[in-house]
Write a structure and sequence with these properties.
4 strands, 235 residues, rod-shaped, mainly alpha, two-stranded antiparallel ribbon, 5 helices
């Protein structure tokens, strides 16, 4: 009995410490992020740049973004200027082709009308319609040749570093219209008398006049298209 009491008194009681760790599902509040200008003195690191939700990029690259946008705008402007210069050269080439064609056809019409001097009724000077056709063809030939030469010189100057006009302005628009209307009026006036002659007889005189009138209509179409292009890029 005494031995059991002694053993009981000498034994030490052991206690198991309780776990102080929190449960796995417990919420732990996170500290707020540092401001953009904050610098960690301990780790010598700057705070990350803030996220811009508008364009998906991080803030802080303003200088690089500005330089990139400026370079992009300069590239777009240069490309636009190159396209405008190419369009002006193409327009000048088309105007040169149309006016040269009108000049050549008017010259052939002048030669055909002036060659009709076969005496008696086959004399073009006896008919005011043919005299009017001859005058309008001469005017159209000289005007179209002068305009074609001017466009060619402008294109050549642009090839050596100058600027291509891309159209001649309001004067060219008005000049093309006036000459084209004179040419179509003269050709239309000479057509009825030529048809009456051809209904009675077919010879070199009526054939030459028919060809001259046809060339007058074609030259009118070329000058009218030239006037449309000049007016489109002028007005």
């Amino acid at each position: 009995m005494h031995m059991d009491m002694a053993m009981t008194t000498t034994t030490t009681t052991t206690t198991t410490p309780k776990s102080t760790s929190s449960s796995p599902g417990a919420y732990v509040a996170k500290p707020p992020p540092p401001p953009p200008g904050y610098v960690d003195v301990v780790h010598n690191k700057a705070a990350p740049a803030a996220y811009d939700s508008y364009n998906g990029r991080r803030q802080g690259g303003g200088a690089a973004a500005t330089a990139t946008s400026r370079a992009s705008s300069d590239y777009d402007e240069d490309r636009y200027q190159q396209q405008a210069a190419a369009g002006a050269r193409a327009l000048d080439g088309l105007l040169l082709l149309l006016r040269a064609a009108a000049s050549v056809m008017s010259f052939v019409a002048v030669a055909l009308v002036a060659s009709c001097r076969h005496g008696d009724w086959m004399e073009f000077a006896r008919y005011p319609e043919y005299r009017c056709l001859l005058g309008a063809s001469v005017l159209a030939c000289v005007y179209a040749a002068a305009q074609a030469l001017r466009v060619f010189r402008r294109m050549r100057a642009a090839g050596y570093g100058g600027r291509s006009g891309g159209g001649g302005g309001l004067a060219d628009f008005a000049g093309d219209q006036v000459v084209a209307y004179l040419l179509i009026a003269a050709s239309a006036a000479a057509l009825p008398i030529t048809l009456r002659m051809r209904s009675a007889v077919l010879n070199v005189f009526t054939d030459a006049m028919t060809a001259a009138i046809s060339l007058g209509f074609i030259a009118f179409a070329a000058l009218a298209l030239s006037a449309m292009l000049s007016g489109f890029f002028t007005l």
